[in-house]
Amino acid sequence: MLSLIRRLTHSKVGLVVTFGLLALIALAFAATDITGMQSGATAGGGSVATVGKAKIGEGELRDRAQNVLEGYRQQQPGIDMGQFIAQGGLEGTLNQLIEDLALDQFGRDQGMVVSKRAVDGEIASIPALQGPDGKFSQTIYQQLLRDRKLTDVQIRQDIARDIIKQQLILPTLPAAQVPLQLALPYASLLLEKRQGQVGFIPTRAMPVGAAPTEAELATWYKRNIAHYTIPERRTIRYAMITGDQIKAQTVPTEAEIAQAYKSQAATYAATEKRSIVQVILADQASANALAAKVKAGTSIEAAARAAGLEPITLPLVQKAAYAAQSTPAIADAVFAAPQGGVVGPLRGTLGFSVVRVDAIQKVAARSLDEVRDEVSAAVSREKANTVLARIHDALDDGIANRSTFAELVSDQKLTASATPALLADGRDPNDATRKAAPDFMPIIAAAFAAETGDSPQLVTIGTDGGFALVALDRVVPPAAPPIAAIRPVLARDFTLDRSRRAARAIAAGIVSKANKGGAFAALYAASGVKVPPIQPLNASRAQLSTNPRGAPPPLVLMFSMSQGTSKLLEAPNNEGWFVLHLDRIERGNAVGKPQVIDAMRADLGKVVGREYAQQFGAAVQKHVGVKKNDKSIAAVRATLTGAGAAQ
Predict the structure, then answer these.
(1) Could you give phi then psi for residue 512, rounded to 5 degrees?
(2) Structure confidence at residue 579 (pLDDT)
(3) Contact (CB, 8 A) for 353 and 330
(4) What pLDDT sits at residue 507?
(5) Which residues sit opposite 581 in a β-bridge?
(6) Sequence-distant (≥ 6) Cβ neighbours of residue 219 within 8 angstroms
């Protein structure tokens, strides 16, 4: 509930700027993302900030900003670096880096240490490092280190840093109990109701106007160059090695099929399974009494429960499996009894067993001809795994020996391919119809994690053991295309913006006159353009939080207005402008509504805890000492947006 109120008092940009602290708190709870564990200043450029004794390099900030942007793209695929930076993403990323280093240094200065066993436990608990058996896999760990170009030392340093942050921050999060009188005004605020009106001035209702001149387009381009800058692209060379490509090498021979059938003879032999119900008793006298009741006609379930026991049901169990659970002698007796027969009591490892045979299922033996397809497929899979492993090992050895991509492809007789210059999300900015398939994204991710001159790498693809040999071919830095290449787009955007500004002038005029006492509805009707009818607004503040995707912006704005006033709000995607008028406010009162007050007290407690954490982080930074280099930060911003290369 309280998060709603906080959204009403903070701008969108402000939320992005505070991203650093929120991300820090999240990291303090779990170190589970191995892809983000890169420490130390990245080489290249000056320092954007000095934190105590440590420095944050331009390269490190640039790389981290790109990684954070990729995280945002999981929820907003269309967001680009220009939008990210315009909304405060670069500053938020830098703030996170500063807080990370400050907390780490502060903790170590206080004598905090992290044991090797604690770090080992964190690594073993990372889901991405667990094998098919659910346990930590050293092989997967080493492969991820190679793929991400990290070292075990780096990973351990970052995990130790996260543990220290957790130990420092967690004690600040649980706030003291929030008093009733503090929560009451906020709870009452949720019950507040408001009534108003909203109109809309569409951009498309404005006249198109004259075509833009070359000078106007040049000015527009220069002012909005970040929007037109194409982010960094990369061309990739790759060779796929999958089961389909080696199918000719995996066709089993008749001899191999026969041998496989022979090795699995027990699987295809005749079998018998039985469903049984058993009761295990501690002494023979009790077992004899229970067995007598069952043989006299009492069900084994009823007899067991009368003795205070619960029978165990084993559906369709084989003799060998049952013998392993009980004893061979009991298994022999049970599998010799007829269906419905009662066996026992017989001494076992846990006591005396009384068993009833409920069902008998006999499975006839299957000949080679009957299971040929099944055996053939199994042999084919095994051969495919062997061939894939051989090629993988050969390529891995070649990479270790510094062989080039071309040499590796030639040695293993692979088919090489190349991509056009792609963005990190797999799109080709020169072809709107081209986008990498989801199963190709690991290859793109590997290429964007590589540096120019790096050795080729092996990337797992699919789920059938296939992989790809991947090499970074060329890096195309961020750059804005020449005006001539995008002139139609510039003209469209310029014209749209001119119409948007014209619509704003009309909407602002309505708001201004309404705030001076004019009748809102009459002013809206006299706007001079074709507008949709005015819509009524009537809601309580609590209703704003009922929509999981967020309340409509006009409704949110209405709850930040004074009664009798009008306001202006831009619609998304340059569609136009909302004009709002607030007619009436009905104050809420939570007295006598304990559920509302208790919910608010809980929410306030969480927020106060986060405020404590924020203040603690600020105090740590002040203690350690932080100095930012605005010139270097500006250089990183220019590099990421391509403004530094623009003409």
Answers:
(1) -60, -45
(2) 95
(3) yes
(4) 95
(5) 197, 566
(6) none
Name, in order, each residue with C-beta under 8 angstroms of 230's C-beta and a sequence gap of 6 or more.
423, 429, 478, 479, 480, 481, 642
Query: How is residue 596 written in tokens?
Result: 């509302």
Tokens of 571: 């619609």
d(CA 266, CA 320): 12
Q: Which residue type, as a one-letter code, is found at position 323?
A: A
Residue 277: φ, ψ to 5°? -125, 130
d(CA 171, CA 159): 19
Residues of the chain scoring pLDDT < 50? 1-44, 645-647
User: For residue 156, which amino acid is it?
Assistant: R
Q: Give dist(CA 149, CA 20) in Å, integer.
A: 25
Mean pLDDT of the chain: 82
Question: Which pLDDT score, from 0 to 100, does residue 40 have?
Answer: 41
Nearest-angstrom CA–CA distance, 575 and 580: 16
Q: What is the pLDDT of residue 74?
A: 66
The 10 Å Cβ neighbour count of residue 519 is: 12
Note the residue count of the chain: 647
Q: Check residue 566 and give its pLDDT.
A: 95
CB atoms within 10 A of CB 109: 11
**In a 3-state reduction of DSSP, which class is residue 9?**
coil
Q: 176: which 2 tokens?
A: 């003291």
Q: Which of 527, 393, 533 is nearest to 469 (CA)?
A: 393
**Ranges of H-type helices in 37-128:** 58-73, 81-86, 89-109, 116-124
**pLDDT reported for residue 37:** 41
Q: Which amino acid is at 604?
A: L
H or E element, residue 458: strand 457-460
Residue whose tokens read 């930060």: 633
- Can you tell me the distance from the alpha carbon of 158 to that of 119, in angstroms, rounded to the nearest whole number? 10
Q: Is the dihedral of CA 485, 489, 490, 491 positive or negative?
A: positive
